[in-house]
Amino acid sequence: MKTTLPAFDQAIRSHDDLLKRRGLVIWIGAEPTFTDRHSEAAEWLYDALGPTKEASARRMLAELLTQAPGAAVLRTLGRQYPKEDQPRWNLGLYRRRNDQPVWSGPPDPLQVGEPLIASPALLEEFWERLAQRLGARSWTALLFSVETHPSLRIVFRRDQLPLLANPERDPRLARPSPHGQPIPSSGIRDELAEQGTYLLGIDWPDPQRGLDDVAVPVVELPACDEPEFFMSLLEAISEAARDVGLPGLVLTGFPPPVDASVAWTTVTPDPAVVEANMAPALDATEFLRESRTGFAAAAAAGLAPYRLHYNGQITDSGGGGHLTLGGPNPESSPFLVQPQLLPALLDYFNRHPALSFLFAGDFVGSFGQSPRPDERTIDIFEELGLALDLLKRQRNPTPDLIWQSLSPFLADPSGNSHRTEINIEKLWNPWLPGRGQLGLVEFRAFRMPPTPERLTALVVLLRAIAAMLAQAPYTPKLVHWGRTLHDRFALPFYLRTDLWEVLDDLASAGLGLGQPVMEELLDESYHWFGEVEFCGCRLTVRRAMEFWPLLGDAFAQEHGASRLVDASTARLEVSLRARPGMAQEALADCQLTVNGYLLPLRREEEMDGETWLYGLRYRRFKPWTGLHPTLQAQGAIELVLSHPQWPGALQVTLHEWRPRGGGYDGLPSDREEAAKRRTERFVTEVLETAPATPPLQPPPGAITPYCFDLRRL
Questions:
Q1: For residues 251 and 72, is the Cβ–Cβ distance under 8 A?
Q2: Less Cβ crowding at N or C end of the chain, within 10 Å?
């Protein structure tokens, strides 16, 4: 019996089929992040490390492993960031894409969920047996011991060259574990492995490393340059461990080699979240399947892709949901195979701010997590235009030229090349050892989506845009938006209108996304505040984008995990639409006031009628440190909607906190409770008569073409 796919899954498969018919190969990846939404500990609010985060990550990895039998669990070196004295922990699953097993040895203790204890006598027996298993592969292997942890060591070569096992003559053989050492500025290097000499370390867990779930031997792996060699080494370790009857084993050391034949998924710590670095997927169908697996594993570990705040507001996890596009290998990256693609992508994103803001988190703007090139200085933006023109003149620009031409413009105002909307640090970067020349482009203007379907819809949107631009002639035509960028495109209405233009472009190019995918992309629940109907008119309030300013010196804050901004300002979009039966022209006579001031609504045409709308800015709280020390929090916002022919009026009061004051009884237990608290803050009242006094006119300095700044009253 033929199984019918759900409509969303079918739309994803149709997208894959479209790209296959066009001969396009675009692999996709993501870095979804999850948090403990019930915790208010520092590690789940702003710190990268903490006492419970690694245990949560272990549970998540154990759940992932249930869907990847035969995968190897590796606890390898993680990333090290400024002001950190050693690398972070990093948990990963290493598997073949053809599902053939790479590990047949005893489990890592995190898989079992209960203590595994090995007999002390087994350590040396395993050490000696492993050397024999290496020798059985015609590799030359020698045993020796050192005083440094790990104390039992095996040095081996795969060729027939002479081998030395004397730490006194070669001190590198007695090197300390890389896990407890800072990563040098040149990057992670295994100097012995670079010369064809491989060093294995074997010991009981190092108590200084915090392996509190481990009471079995630990093997420290060398750097390996080829996946087949690495998997052969894993096989030898598996055999030796089974030979001596080890109940469990932990594999640590250098990160493993990766190519198109293997999938390497990691779970790592990041400020406020656990980040899952998904193995790149060859198409969207695979991506959807792996995303569902990842979300389910996070949920089983007690982690969520969102946070529920005291006042009922829902935000993402706090770590974003960054997406990547590339190829099966660097040379096959669409950005290098089609040299015009990256310039065309920069141009297209510039012309469509919806791609920068509509799906972004709260930290947007010049010093947010994903600033656009035109959010730097006008001089830099004009130079970008020249760079694109010069690249256009090159018939076949090399990867080096593409990266050198565009990388200076893809950074934030302080020069941080990581915090940028379109990140090419891993495209063809000679200054990022080991990770810089992967042919990857990362898209950072994405908050963490609440579901795997939404995540997949976003990556399909990016993939379809890349496919469209890869096969279309490109002519640079950057738009300098000026103040309009942070005025007009702060409002969800204009962002959604702009997104529709993108969707229309895709449809015209034969790459339409299908209704189920578009519904995910057009969902507006993230920006929703409240809605009410009155006298045939619908008044809707949405959260809009706000661009928080950085406090102090940007460069001085570059080495921290976060930067200090004044987040006290909020922006709302207020809109009016006629309900069926109400004449469209009647909207023009409606009057909407905010705190007694007339709101100069803008009239916009849509396919199904008119919308009248405007933005509001206000100070929602007074920060302990920030801009404008004399400006107080502005409390509740009062909207009054009236019409000359209506007998009464509608009053809507918007609160940042519970209207009756006082604290909440803990965080919301679930989304339903959060919705109740949001609804409580959207207070409506029908007035028997409209206000008798005429509304006040906003002072000129408080009005922009799209927004009324209440802070200036």
A1: yes
A2: N
Which residue reads 């519970």 in tokens?
Answer: 658
- Contact at 8 Å (CB) between 50 and 41? yes
Determine the average pLDDT of the residues in 584-599: 90
What lies within 8 Å, CB to CB, of 23 at 6+ separation is none
Tell me: the pLDDT tens digits for 428-448? 998 887 788 899 999 999 999
Find, among 389, 400, 407, the residue nearest to 347 by Cα: 389
Please give the share of the chain, as a percent, with pLDDT higher than 90: 80
| Sign of the torsion formed by the C-alpha atoms of 673, 677, 679 and 684 | positive
Placement of tokens 């990388």 in the chain: 407
Cis status of the peptide bond prior to 644, with omega within 30 of 0: no
Beta bridge pairs of residue 639: 594, 652
DSSP codes joined into one string, 436-502 = S-S--EEE---PPPSSHHHHHHHHHHHHHHHHHHHTS---------TTHHHHGGGSHHHHHHHHHHH
pLDDT at 446: 97
β-pairing, 218-221 with 250-253?
A: parallel
Whole-number Å distance between alpha carbons of 699 and 446: 36
**pLDDT value for 371:** 94
3-state SS assignment for residue 228 = helix
pLDDT at 82 over 90: no
Pair of tokens at residue 531: 């809605």
Whole-model pTM: value is: 0.95
Among residues 292, 275, 291, 299, the alpha carbon closest in space to that of 37 is found at: 299
pLDDT at 675 over 70: yes
One-letter amino acid for residue 378 of the chain:
I
Q: Whose CA is closest to 210, among 254, 177, 173, 247?
A: 177
Question: How far, in Å, CA of 320 to CA of 363, rounded?
Answer: 10
Count the Cβ atoms, other than its own, within 10 Å of residue 94: 27
What amino acid is encoded at 8 in this protein? F
Asked whether the beta carbons of 615 and 601 are under 8 A apart, the reply is no
pLDDT of residue 586 exceeding 90: no
Sheet of strand 27-31, all strands in order from the earlier edge strand to the far edge: 27-31, 322-326, 441-443, 422-423
Over range 198-205, report the average pLDDT: 95
**Please, are residues 249 and 130 in contact by the beta-carbon 8 Å criterion?**
no
CA distances from 64 to 95, 113, 260, 287, 294 (A): 12, 14, 20, 15, 7
- The CA distances from residue 455 to 222, 263, 461, 521, 687, in Å, are 35, 19, 10, 10, 44
pLDDT at 607: 78
Give the contacts of 161 (CB within 8 A, at least 6 positions apart). Answer: 196
Enter the tokens of residue 359: 């799906």
Q: How many helices (H) and strands (E) does the chain have?
A: 17, 27
Q: Residues near 516 by Cβ (< 8 Å), separated by ≥ 6?
A: 7, 8, 10, 11
Give the model confidence (pLDDT) of 323-367 as tens digits.
999 999 999 999 999 999 999 999 999 999 999 999 999 999 998
Q: Which tokens hold the place of 147?
A: 């005083």
Output the CA–CA distances (angstroms, integers) from residue 483 to 375, 480, 546, 706, in the order listed: 10, 9, 13, 11
